[in-house]
Amino acid sequence: MYSEWASLQTVVRTEAAENDSVLAKFPADTGKEVALSVVRQLASNIGITHAPSPSHLITDRQVLWCMEVICYGLSLPLSEHDAIRDCVNIYCDWLSVLHPVANVSVPAPLNDDPNLYARKMIAHLHNLFVPRKGEVWPFLYSDLGADTIKRQAVLCHRVLRTLQQAAQLSTCMSRETWEAVLIFLLAINETLLATPTVKDDVGDQLCERVLGVLFEVWLIACTQCFPSPPLWRTLRDLATAWRHRLALVHQWNRVNLALTHKVIAFMYGPQFPKHNFYENEQQVPEGLSHEATAQAWFRFLHCIGSPVDLCRPAVISQTPKFLQYAMMSTDASAVDPSAHPCLTVLPTNFLRAIKGIATLVDAFLGIMSEPLVLSDEEVRKETPTPPPHRRPTKSFSVTSTTKVSGASKAALIGLSGRTMSTSGSSSTTNTMTSVSGSWDVTSSQALAPQRPKCNSLLHLFGEWLFEAAQVGTGLYATSNFSRKLSSDGNSATIGGTLSGTQGSDDGIASTSKYQAGRAMALATLCRIFCAKKTGEQILPVYYARFYLVLLHGLKLNDKKEVEESLVSILLNCSDLLKLDLDGVQILIPYILEALERVLPDKDLHVRSNVATQADLRKASINLLLSMVVLPLHFPELPIKELIGGRELERPPVILGTLKARIMNLLVNALQVESDPQNTHMLLGGLLVLIQEAAAVEMSESANIIQHPMIVPNTPDSAQGLFVRATYLVCHRLISSWKTDLSISLAALELLSGLANSGISDIEKVEWERGMKWVCDYIIFQCWRPPQYHSKDLHSSIVAAFSTVSAWVLAQPAVLRNRHSLHTLLEVVELGISGTKSQGKKGESPKMKDEKELKPVSMRVRDAAEALLTIIFEHCGPESVSSLVDEATLLKLSNPARPTTPDPRITSFKYFVLHNNTVLALLEDALGNHQEPQPEINVILRGGFGRHAWSFQLRQLPRHRSTTRGRSQNSPGRPVYTNLGPTPINTHHSYFPESVAKIPQCAADRSIPELYNENCDEMSAILREQCVLESAAANAPPEETLECTPPGLCAEFQTARLFLSHFGFLNKLEGGKSAVVSLDSKKEGFFRELEFLDKMEPRTSDTCHVFYVKGGQSNASDILMNSVSTF
């Protein structure tokens, strides 16, 4: 990417050498005295202990002279902490000149040219991060030294925080200043991080902080002043020397994910799903344009080189600092740079880097990623470094390229030896035993519809993922060691070293330490290829590389252990065979071999702690179910080998030969499965396999010429599999599954499906055994204690009755067996009454009229009655329909009736009742009744067959008749007695009678009498009414008439009486009648009746399924879809 641009590594590594002060030319005491006095005076002016005041420095010469002194003060020994602190405070205060409003204490020359002086101050601050010349190293490990370094780290944090604020707030920084800031950050990162890691040294403590500031400021620079290509190349070249640091991969993952969210947002819109778990978008400045975001994203993605190099200690250790350690070390085992103890962290770094790439892939696919699962020790290593005032600091051992040259070899050897022994004691050589990735969580999530194509993702990440997926497999053993490494004139030395250490690197990569990262890469590749859309094209080279790494990932080791790579493939490739991937059939034998290791083993030993055994078996079952029908539909398809070689030489595999292995694996997996959901899947797959096998065998038997016929009753035939499935499912149903109601329902559904599979030539005894086992299951469930009874339990009993019904309908011949019929009737009796008449051995039978009906539930009773109905329909050769038809009734009513024309046309009346029953009514008497009563003969055709009835209309029932054979004149009634009510004469008065007895006085006559014309008129009306009522009362009584019943009719419309008595003539809602008359004179009417009589008397329902196009809602349009368009 940057091959045509020069790297600035030399500028960065010589940053400290160019910042020597003029006071360094004088004796140390002289320079120290000058620095202490000047710095103390300047620090008193910036407002630390009191209010700030304007600076006395008014000319450039004054400022430059003071800056020389401050530069020297920053390089003072660590014991002069107060002076170093004052220098840091002064520069941090003066750097506010880059803010929109500078502090009051900033000298005037800095305000005139802020960028020039800011660059000088930033260069001088580098002295704070480098080791002191002539420092006594054992002092750093004393208690006094630890306290000193603690305060020193506080100053480093303040400098970094000041630069952050300046980058965020400044509006006047020029390109030169931005480059100076970035070069400064690169320089201090190179100083602190390029050396081999020493536990709790300043590089270990400040690693997370300095890298976070570097990436944050770099992103801000992309917004304000996009870095030049030489700076980007320098970042990449230097970062490759820091890859042994945990924090580098962590910060790299964070910035990549944050930029990826921004890229996805403007490429696919805000509706594209994002990772809600991560909160990294605040790291990206808001003002970053789309073009700058895309450029920064791609460049940051490649800033640490190939992440796969993290699994090659020989490559990671080929840096000047590691080579210097090897040359200075006196330990014979440390001659090889790759043997440094700090490189034991590479497996974790490799895993985290691949996990970061997997997270980016998941972001583009629109699925959520889970965080990485690490051990407690690794979590402590990952924790971002807090400021030293919140955490104790133990060491401050930093080496520098420019400073090491002046130190003696003895001093370096002593330092290295002591430091390495401390680090080695705290390092973990078994790092990856508890480190693993959570690559199984995203396999079942829905993908984003607008996700990018697989080719695009493979162009971006494919090289790294394919290379990481083949770590430890021996593939392309020399492909990556010829990669050109960026260093300062050391390419020849590094190349020679690589060629000599290639074998050892392969040995390290082949160990299990890096298998977690390899498993993560395999899982990511599986998710990419399983995200293929319909009709999407993937380059053949990607198919080839993908199948190659999967082939090696599916292999089992010598101990037949299930390694992490195999687990990751099975968890993330459950839909692999369901997609239209070119040439995917070449993996079927290897997948089947891996499944044969996983599924039949009940106590499987898995070398992974991120996936439960149930999840692994679920994914494996999905893969198995996706291949069960392939040998049946493509029996002659050859499977070619992906790789040739003596170790892989074997005859070509024909897909049809895998049928027996797949069937055996499915049955064996069902025998040991204990998870309910997985058991449901296996039962469904077993049913599909049997049904497909039966359909294929029937088609082959019908076309023997094109396809050879399968030999019946072989273990892999439909008949053999039917018997195996019946034995296995029934045995587990009455043993281990009888208490698991959900599995019981699935097993009963499979048994019902077996009955309806259409498989012939099954021995009768197999049907009888299967039905007997299901009946035993019903008996066990019905006899369970009351506290276990529930709706779910009753549902399983009802399902079992339905299964028995299906088996009876599929094989009615089992009813001819006396023992089978007895078992069925006992179960029906148990379902209807709740108990059996024949109890246990030694108990006397209980008569049915003595039993109390207490069924388990009403649903169970209905299911038992339905089974009893089916038994009655199939038990015996008799027809359930009546043998009487129209011809029989006409012959009985009038034997001399002419046969032509058809007498049924004139004699019978046909009606349709409720659109489901046909009535044929004959009003003629049959001639076998001596009483002259109206008669009607009815032939009823319905869903339960044909039935004949003869009705005689009588006024009284037979037992009420006084004379047999004759009709009464009157039905009789009670005697009528015309007795009226007894009249009661009463006198009504308005006042009590005592009022009339009171004599009147003169005062009573003082009130005038009431007189009005209206009163006279009312009196006249009352007199007339009294006359009329007295005349009516004195009239002679009339003679009472006796009611007698009418005489018997001689002519009847018996058909109308029959329909009226049963309410068929009443009109329904909407004005329609329940009965509709049929025209029997139409041609073909009686032929259709004959066809109706020939139908089975069982109710049958027909369901029509139509395919509906998008947007269709009209019935005619939907029906037209099924019309042929030829």
From TrEMBL:
Alphabetized, the UniProt keywords read: GTPase activation
The keyword Lipid metabolism belongs to this UniProt entry's keyword annotation: no
Q: Which PROSITE patterns does its entry note?
A: RAPGAP (PS50085)
Q: What region holds the Rap-GAP domain?
A: 1089-1126
Cite the InterPro entries for this sequence: ARM-type_fold (IPR016024), RALGAPB (IPR039930), Rap/Ran-GAP_sf (IPR035974), Rap/Ran_GAP_dom (IPR000331), RGPA/RALGAPB_N (IPR046859)
Q: Where is this region: Disordered?
A: 377-402, 957-978
Give the protein name, as stated in the record.
Answer: Rap-GAP domain-containing protein
Protein's organism: Ranatra chinensis
